[in-house]
């Protein structure tokens, strides 16, 4: 600074590196790929105890007695707790409906429900002590499907419902029901030249995150507790935990720990309350980590679904109407089922122009495993069915399936079935054009001068074929997904942004409660701060509840909503910094009085690039800090009778082309390529955008051909709770994944961005199924497709969720006794 106080060394601004639009590297990337990143399961505290849960061995039973004496007498055990030991009268929790008991009381409603918790000085001691707890069950009749849930005199999963959905459902075993009626579907059907119906079954998918549920609860000197946890939504957890503990929310201090994936499975509570209860009971830190077996029981899954559709069309390829009925199995507790129903209903027609619709979607209570949030959130199941229907109608009309979709593709201004206009770009036809125009992978890639490369064939290194019986198929699909929370939910985020000079350099600190679950939010948030404040050095503070809520890391919303909050807070910081500069230096240059000043490269510059001051000189010893909430446009609840209403804030679109090769003799499938075209509005980090699209695509591939939690329809027990028997795509199953990114800005969103992460999960599954149908000529109305479905060896009397003969190795649970028989069990 010059002696007279004016800024010295004025030069032209050079901008700031690492802002939006660049593929900056993730700050946690190297640590994760080298194995040095600390996940929640790696946490350690001196003198900590280990927590363990005893879970029910039956799916529906009265709890006759619980004997904890032998467990309490085990050396090294510090505490054993059951429902009767809970400290307050608040003993249930839930995202929307508080129907989930902290520990089972009176009866259990699903296989693997928590009954008791143990704290001991060693994890093996805790496990053995839990196994010593004697629980006597008297088994009750099971509710496993719609027929048993709604039959006259059906057993009620929850006997005394008082939640706000209970007055709008036709039966207490229906969690929520959402009809959507627009136009006159019956009259439109009379005008149709082709009517196609179909019944579809979508299997139960697991989020299968690699980092198991884990957390560390540390009792505080003030009677509170500090909880370090892997979760998706810190403040939602806090809202549910504090009342059960009998503590005010400011005494339950939550900090996000390293999260090894989520995909919706961490939106509900797992061991959060249990760890805190044990820590407060023993006065010692308590760590809980699920093993993989327990993880399958410790979180919700994707809703399995039964879907019935009717589509009509005229000879020129125009859709006349859609009728559909979607039945989702929510399992024993509500979780996110009401919102999933809303999504499934409102998005059930797909990205098409249809004026006349009659839609019903509902979720059941049953004694099957609880189901809730998973990537795609109700839209995945619907997309599988409506895209199969679109192929059927196209075939009935003799039209190319892509051309038929193009004819009916929605565009900006189209009305959704809910009556809501799509008020931002909806490039459905363009995405289809782009994905179809991508180069096709070469035929018979396995052939070489040295013979067949079996790695490129169905069956791979198992060497089941050298090309005989292998047929290629190609399939297309496109989907629509909402972004952000819907139906009138107050969807907001909070950001605290601080700008100060540290060591002679301007530094920005960003603090939010956003859960980084692997999506790359911490990377984008730093990019936003660099762009808005022109500072290279940005520190992202760990997420905790010492700042306001950021909402859930779900619904493809965090870049939109928390990114919007950071952008807004940065704008307010910038204005305060400029006002500070005007006070200090305004007399030295007339440009300080203009409105077009920017912060770039650590300096204050004019819109023409002339530097007015270094930020360090403007700030001196003063820090500028702002904490602000930010909300997107409001939405509306859907009408409970007609489903009409502006329920969503934004829509995203993706299209896929799948190329598969099928060994028709053995029923083996090799996905050769899954090409995707997706509109992202604005790619804030292009590399991360492509990664999200490819990851969602592979997750859709999994449910198409291999992933399914198998539940015994007789016992309602999970049959395959392991990564040995629950099959996941590996790198050997992953095909080429070319991506074409379209950027058509949504003027209502920060930077014009559009949520990215979920849309590719929708259309990849039906594209793979369409390609397999193209190769085999088979109808294929369920996911996942198994070898016996392709070879015609599936038994006609087999329930769709029965263990598939020969498709995988399944270790069945021990069969329960007769319904009225009492017996003792020592836990899973």
TrEMBL record:
Alphabetical list of Pfam families matching this protein: Ald_Xan_dh_C, MoCoBD_1, MoCoBD_2
GO molecular function, one term: xanthine dehydrogenase activity
Region: Disordered, residue numbers: 1-25, 780-828
Signal sequence, start to end: none
UniProt keyword terms in alphabetical order: Oxidoreductase
Gene3D superfamilies recorded: Aldehyde oxidase/xanthine dehydrogenase, a/b hammerhead, Aldehyde oxidase/xanthine dehydrogenase, molybdopterin binding domain
Enzyme Commission code: 1.17.1.4
Ranges for domain Aldehyde oxidase/xanthine dehydrogenase a/b hammerhead: 34-141
EC primary class: oxidoreductase
Descriptive protein name: Xanthine dehydrogenase, molybdenum binding subunit
Protein source organism: Streptomyces lividans 1326
